[in-house]
Amino acid sequence: MKLLSVAIPCYNSEKYMRKCVDSLLEGGEDVEIIIVDDGSSDGTAEIADEYACKYPAVVKAVHQSNGGHGAAVNTGIRNASGLYFKVVDSDDWVKREAYLQVLDTLRNLAGGDRALDMLICNFVYEKEGERRKKVMQYRRILPKEKMFTWEDCHHFLKGHYILMHSVIFRTRLLKECGIRLPEHTFYVDNIYVFEPLPYVRNLYYLDVNFYRYYIGREDQSVNEQIMINRIDQQIKVNKLMIDYFVDKKQEILKNKRLYQYMRNHLEIITTVSSVLLIRSGTEENLEKKKELWQYLKSRDRRLFSWMRHGIMGNAMNLPGRGGRRISVGGYKICQKIFKFN
Q1: Angle at alpha carbon of residue 116, lines to 111 and 120, rounded to 5°
Q2: Distance (Å, rounded) from C-alpha 30 to C-alpha 1?
Q3: Cα(335)–Cα(333) distance, rounded to whole angstroms?
Q4: CA distances from residue 113 to 100, 116, 220 in whole angstroms, order as listed
Q5: Does residue 13 sit in helix, strand or coil?
Q6: What mean pLDDT do residues 192-214 have?
Q7: Each residue of 130-166: pLDDT tens digit?
Q8: Strand, helix or coil at 87?
Q9: How many contiguous H segments (helices) and E segments (strands) does the chain have?
Q10: Backbone angles phi, psi at 57, to 5 degrees
């Protein structure tokens, strides 16, 4: 059995995927690299096959009709044979020194008395045109370099969340929890780092800058204007997260820290949805914002009340044009602090 399976969802990625794959090849034969060609129309399929032919003990090329990022991640999980599982997007890459430390850590923890469910590392925003790189790290929140549980976590600050770039899951956990990301939908990475959490018992934080998250391409899904154009997909993901949290609420409530974390993460996603709907400036989207909050209220009045009357909920629901300008102003400040979009 391989130690680590890494899925690379690829769609028309010929211009940048080699950097991603080459960085992952540094892990040697303990790693299984699954390149998922999601119905590309450029040279992606040929590049995937080239790597699979050149490195048959490490690289597997899987071709499928286009189903979107979620479908490609689903395929990666289904084809994974490694003990642990990681998603690396085709325009991102990993840092060699940190990568080798990650693999050493996984080797040391594999087969221990307690099964490691989730490894967390830092990631770096490789934002186009910026010299100073924002590092998302968890030093003040998570115990370092030891196995721990949710009860050992400190409070997560606003804007400080576990993202797809941060995590490596135990493969069997992903398969057993039954996660299946929606197809033809962007922003499903939020579901990927949300739904498995009630199944996570043992965590480990390795304080290394492992994942390099490239941000700045005009056609990138996190480009703000593109997010606004795809706002219905953002709302779909938001509602799926609300449904999951509400349906699993009694189980999640058994662990106070986990409940607080997941509730706060849901608050952030709802805030992002709200501010993008405001930013669009259309009456139709302002109506969609109202409908999203009504949906939350219909699913769980107590959760709605907590979220609506919190700092973010109040900020996103200020009345009139003036109120909306204040909401957007607060969002821009957060952009500068946390370096997203």
Answers
A1: 135
A2: 8
A3: 5
A4: 23, 9, 42
A5: coil
A6: 97
A7: 777 889 999 999 999 899 999 999 988 766 789 999 9
A8: strand
A9: 14, 10
A10: -85, -10
